[in-house]
Amino acid sequence: MSLDRMRLGGSLAAAVTFSVVLAGCGSAPAPSGAPAAAPAADGAAVRVVASTNVYGSIVSAIGGDRVAVTSIIDSPDADPHEYESTPADAAAVNEAQLVVVNGGGYDGFATKLVDAAAAKPTVIDVVELSGLEPAPAAAPEPAEAGTDEHGHEHGEFNEHVWYSLPTVEKLADRLAADLAATDPAGAATYTGNATSFKGQVDGLIAKLDAIKTAHGGDKVAITEPVPLYTVQDAGLENLTPEEFSEAVEEGNDPPVAVLNETLQLFTAKTVKALLANAQTESPSTTQVEQAATAAGIPVVPVTETLPAGVDDYIAWQTGQIDQLSSALGTPAS
């Protein structure tokens, strides 16, 4: 039986404040024959559109007051998998000089907006930039067995690449280069901001390394694949049945046997923490969180987009990583 994927915003998002692929281009110029977006005029802010506020916050960190950023998804209630763009979104992309998309099938609405724009902006596809997945040769085929309704396969690639800290550092460098190409007068500012930002990301990597040193091999569970790069980089082992986390991500009920297998992780106290997507709730995730709480296993809330009241990527990730460290028994450094 299918269920609607429910996004939780408002008070819950505030409570965790700190707690279509672009073919062939990671940073794509305008196609031959297409009008390119105009370069920044002297003193004018570079117009940038990001598919989500996660990427918007990173653009702001690199661009500072030399950029004007529009994040299409800027609410914890919106689901990038299911988002339907608006005329205002189309207008923003049509006027943008740079667009940042996640790619990998996560935010196909953004790719469609770029394809429909009259003036083609430079595009950064972060999945392609990451090097974590070979760039596909063509757009995804219609959904078939083994794929979700968005036409991309699960179990092969985790598209939530903004949780990959090395990828975020690559993005900082690419943003500095592409912003400088549009606004040469700001090149030194962009490079300096990228260097400073990457230093902060290095601090996050150090926190994960510390968890790995103290707790490498510890077992955890998740409700969705969202934080798996964090789990991997912290040296932790995810024991959640893949069929459970994929079903939740796709808005489906996992089979009863799979749900029971997942619940057993908590009743048997096989895992030390549960990383739960605080922006999505279903009967299955509620049961899992209740089982963890009843067993005295800490629940670490994570989110796909910035929670309400948070506009800084580093602060957001610091809060989540520190909560994970504390849940495993090591106070945050």
Automatic annotation (TrEMBL):
The keyword Signal applies. It comes from the Bacteria. It is found in: Cell envelope. PROSITE patterns: PROKAR_LIPOPROTEIN (PS51257). Residues 1-23 form the signal peptide. Keywords: Metal-binding, Signal, Transport. InterPro entries: Bact_metal-bind_prot9 (IPR050492), ZnuA-like (IPR006127). This is Zinc ABC transporter substrate-binding protein. It comes from Pseudonocardia charpentierae.
